[in-house]
């Protein structure tokens, strides 16, 4: 009898739930009741593949992905390139013809790459008013003439692009005949740059509003040494990493405020720097033995030439590798054959104290180029051997300061953390 009563009560409870009885309430679906623009904003953080899959949640979500103003297309999430291509074609044809504020297109492999398909995606982005475009052709590194910017995007006369990030694309000189009037941020990685008939690469002349430029591992198209000209009157921030494939670099950026340089100086030389007022310069010079050996004096002279072009900087940060280049003469490379491996031993800074007087005399022969220097930031371990006079004697600042940066290596000496402590001292 008790079992029958329990069954009856359970049946009534189920019935009450089905009839929407208030005595038993389910958790409300708050997400579906959010305003559409908030749902679209949430979906914009997902890869487009996952955004499309939310259409199975309910009827109200069936078309939500079609209104998302952001497209994130990455071939990594697909087993075959053909499946990725078909998916992208469907997305572009089915989404509502609204503006695409941001678009990210990433192809992981170039073995099955379809150029006509890439051109279709690129032109879709430009024709739908994209403000921020990330276009990455991984694996190509821009060495294939097929992936020229002009071939992929055509001639751009009027577009809404404000931020452009390109990977593996060949950049035409001056972006061809395109006029990127609204572009303020440009990030180029593994890209090649073409030159004019005089062997000069001047790719940014058609970007009159450019304010931030990042050049990461870019080189000349045919692997030949050429000159790089950065003409950007409105540029405020410039980051250059591994651009040593260019023989000469000329920079005309009178409004530049931040300059971050990370490369070797084996061949690279700054022939002309036009920088009126610079707030921060960070100089990281690779001190690899193969780039220094036999070129020590030349590399040091190139670094001094770079310092002369940064004469108006107010804060200068010298990374450890840069300091080592200034002490080019203490590097002795000893090679020995041991167990069929070539080992390279580098004499460290144990001999710096003995040779610091020689180095100071060498640099003191050079006049200090820094006229506005307020703060010099260096690794604390190398400060005793740094020729302070060379950096500070020409400054018009009453009391310039030196910041000592201490690095922690912890238990693993090959892992260097961020600076653990900074100490300031005033220099009379």
Automatic annotation (TrEMBL):
PROSITE patterns: FBOX. Residues 1-22 are annotated as: Disordered. Residues 28-80 form the F-box domain. Gene3D superfamilies: 1.20.1280.50, Ribonuclease Inhibitor. This is F-box domain-containing protein. Pfam families: F-box.
């Amino acid at each position: 009898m008790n079992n029958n009563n329990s069954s009856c009560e359970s049946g009534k409870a189920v019935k009450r739930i089905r009839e929407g009885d208030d005595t038993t309430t389910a958790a409300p679906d708050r997400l579906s009741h959010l305003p559409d623009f908030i749902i679209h904003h949430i979906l914009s953080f997902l890869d487009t593949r996952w955004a499309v899959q939310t259409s199975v949640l309910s009827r109200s979500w069936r078309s939500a992905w079609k209104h998302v103003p952001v497209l994130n297309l990455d071939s990594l999430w697909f087993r075959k390139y053909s499946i990725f291509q078909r998916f992208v074609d469907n997305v572009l044809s089915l989404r509502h013809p609204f503006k695409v504020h941001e678009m990210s297109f990433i192809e992981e492999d170039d073995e099955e790459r379809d150029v006509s398909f890439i051109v279709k995606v690129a032109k879709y982005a430009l024709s739908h008013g994209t403000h921020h475009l990330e276009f990455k052709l991984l694996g190509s590194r821009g060495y294939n003439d097929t992936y020229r910017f002009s071939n992929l995007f055509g001639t751009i006369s009027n577009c809404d692009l404000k931020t452009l990030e390109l990977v593996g694309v060949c950049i035409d000189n001056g972006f061809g005949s395109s006029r990127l009037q609204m572009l303020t941020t440009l990030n180029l990685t593994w890209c090649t740059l073409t030159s004019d008939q005089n062997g000069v690469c001047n790719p940014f002349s058609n970007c009159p509003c450019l304010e931030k430029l990042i050049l990461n591992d870019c080189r000349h198209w045919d692997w030949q040494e050429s000159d790089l000209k950065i003409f950007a009157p409105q540029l405020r921030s410039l980051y250059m990493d591994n651009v040593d494939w260019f023989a000469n670099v000329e920079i005309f950026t009178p409004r530049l405020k931040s300059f971050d340089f990370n490369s070797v100086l084996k061949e690279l030389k700054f022939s002309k720097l036009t920088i009126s007022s610079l707030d921060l310069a960070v100089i990281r010079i690779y001190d690899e033995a193969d780039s220094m050996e036999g070129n020590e004096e030349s590399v040091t002279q190139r670094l001094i030439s770079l310092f002369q072009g940064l004469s108006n900087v107010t804060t200068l940060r010298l990374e450890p590798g840069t300091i080592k280049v200034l002490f080019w003469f203490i590097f002795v490379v000893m090679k020995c054959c041991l167990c069929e491996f070539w080992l390279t031993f580098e004499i460290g800074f144990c001999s710096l104290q003995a040779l610091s007087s020689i180095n100071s005399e060498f640099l003191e022969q050079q006049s200090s180029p820094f006229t506005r220097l307020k703060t010099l930031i260096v690794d604390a371990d190398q400060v005793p051997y740094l020729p302070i006079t060379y950096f500070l004697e020409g400054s018009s600042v009453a009391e310039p300061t030196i910041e000592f940066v201490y690095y922690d290596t912890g238990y693993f000496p090959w892992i260097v953390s961020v600076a653990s402590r900074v100490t300031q001292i005033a220099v009379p």
